[in-house]
Design a protein that fits this description.
By secondary structure, this protein is mainly beta. The chain is globular and about 40 Å long.
């Protein structure tokens, strides 16, 4: 079975999402590998650990292979110690809107000030309602990829 992730990414222009969120969780993540053709991410999300492998994005930046498995937090913590460059920290808000759920990431640390929203889709041209707090689309702009934010943080732009 093929594991494809189809998503679009946007900047966020106001804090309206906070009032619509039904969940908030703290995420700490690092990258064991950030080669363009594959990234290997270690993430601690709340009290759970995850190991994720992502393939290269297609031309539009919307679709790529993704595989993820849960690991225990101790393993994840040990792997984060081996990660490249900057460890990302963020608060993630899950915001239901229309028929979709937006994940809004409010970055901390060296990426403080950056707030992005992602929406996962079933197919690339799927229609979705856009909340008024959604700003400019940055899908496919590699600067906003988490793997790149771990190399060149937002506060260095």
């Amino acid at each position: 079975m093929e594991h494809l992730e189809i998503e679009r990414k946007f900047l966020v222009k106001s804090e309206g999402y906070k009032h619509q969120a039904n969940e908030q969780i703290r995420i700490v993540q690092g990258f064991l590998n950030t080669a363009p053709e594959r990234t290997v991410r270690v993430r601690i999300k709340g009290d759970k650990g995850f190991l994720t492998v992502k393939g290269a994005s297609n031309v539009s930046g919307t679709t790529r292979f993704e595989w993820e498995t849960e690991i225990n937090v101790t393993e994840a913590t040990n792997l984060i110690d081996l990660c490249e460059a900057v460890i990302l920290e963020k608060n993630r808000y899950k915001v239901p809107f229309g028929n979709h759920v937006f994940e809004v990431d409010e970055f901390l640390g060296e990426n403080r000030g950056l707030v992005v929203a992602e929406v996962e889709l079933q197919h690339e041209d799927e229609f979705f309602d856009k909340p008024d707090w959604l700003g400019k689309e940055v899908t496919g702009d590699v600067r906003y990829y988490n793997s790149q934010l771990s190399k060149i943080p937002f506060n260095q732009w």
